[in-house]
Amino acid sequence: MSLLNHLLSFALQGAAAAEHASGAAQHGADAHAGPPSGGEIFTHLYHHVLPEREFYGMHLPELKVAGYVLPIWNLQIYQVLAVVLVLGLFLWAMSGLKSGRPNRVQRTLIGFVLWIRDEMAVPVLGHHHAHALLPYFLTVFFFIAASNLMGLFPFGSTSTACIYVTGGWAITTLAMMIGGGMIANGPVKFWLGLVPHGIPAFLWPLMFIVEVIGLLVKPFSLTIRLFANMTAGHLVVLSLMGLIFYFGQESLIGKAAYAVAPGALAFAVFIMIIESFVALLQAYIFTLLSMLFVGASLHPEH
Helix or strand or coil: residue 177? Predict the structure, then answer.
């Protein structure tokens, strides 16, 4: 779920619990129900950045394939929605292009495609490889951008805040680096080409190990960079909004929530605005670095 939806749900939960506690006190009962208190407020809010087996109260089923049980997580649903969203938008943009009268949004989508092709892919990969690999990099950019932005809307979720999702894309890039390099240069030349020319023979084995490690570290950096940036923004917003609930408890300072709320809310809105920019920026960075890594494998002489 989106940050706004989580916070609204948390606020309603607290209000309902407070009402229940008030009614119980009037009848002389011991009111045990209530919202999370103290540091538990932040624990409760931070829980929502994790994958869940439930989708708005509905427990998600498990699939049994060849004797293995494959659980379905809520993030998988949002990944499918991101694919459907991107596919639908570009089918719509293509229809406007074919009609010869695309509107402003359709022209913007087409402009993004041309920008990725002409300003990113061609300079890094060259014309031949750029046109061959462009579908993959367009998929990477628009899927990550859509996944990042979905978490900023009500009832949405950011699947790229899960390290397994970012790791999957990084492994795909690693496969293209190794597979593409071996196809373009030949298996033997690709692996031998990892070590720069002119290295003394006694250092060659050590340098080969170092270069192989460097090859594997590149997708690892892709994984951590996207995951950490998307998760950090959510945690900052949840922390700022959690201060309102934290100081609003009678057991703490009570009325201090009125003093904290405006500043916390203002900073949270500011971070949400920044997050919309970061969502596109991280899609650009992931795509560009993937191009650079793949291009280095295709053209080791450069």
Answer: helix
**Domain segments of the chain: what residues?**
3-298
H/E stretch holding 68:
strand 68-71
What would the pLDDT profile of 114-155 be if each residue is shown by its tens digit?
Answer: 999 999 999 999 898 999 999 999 999 999 999 999 888 777
Quote the CA–CA distance of 206 and 190 in Å, as a whole number: 17
pLDDT tens-place string over residues 197-235: 888 888 889 999 999 999 999 999 999 999 999 888 888
Q: DSSP letter string over 10-55? A: HHHHHHHHHHHHHHHHHTT---------TTHHHHHHHGGGS--SEE
Task: Say what the pLDDT of residue 51 is.
Answer: 81
Which H or E run includes 69?
A: strand 68-71
Tokens at 255, concatenated: 């009325």
Closest CA to 162 of 45, 25, 243, 50: 50
Cα-atom radius of gyration of the chain, to the nearest Å? Answer: 25
- CB hemisphere CA count around 105 (13 angstroms): 6
Strands 68-71 and 62-65, how do they pair? antiparallel
